[in-house]
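Dear support,

I submitted the protein below through the web form. The confirmation email said the job was done, but the results page showed an empty box. After a refresh the structure appeared. I'm attaching both so you can tell me whether what I see now is the final result or a partial one.
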Amino acid sequence: MKLVIFFFLCLAGCTGSSKVKAVRVAPAEVESTVSTISSGTVQAENQAVLNFGVAGRVAKVRIKAGDKVRRGQVIAELENVDLKVSLEESQKALERGKRLAGAR
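What the results page shows now:
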């Protein structure tokens, strides 16, 4: 604030006038209330259709709103406990089949 007063004093000195008027600066409170009531529908500018090979619950989301993504980037992971169990059972069945085929 002192800098502003100094600036005005210097500016007054440049005008050729020898009279300087001092003013007292005091803090004041400013109250402003703005209220808006609107209704409508918000629609996304861009939308993407996502397709998943399997149904399931989302276990982890790897991005956050506003992130840019590139083609092929993993953005979410599904719970895969059931798939892991199914894979293990299939691998065991394959091994049994190989053993039986080799036993002939």
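Response: this is the final, complete result; the empty box was a page-load delay. Strands lie at 58-61, 76-78.
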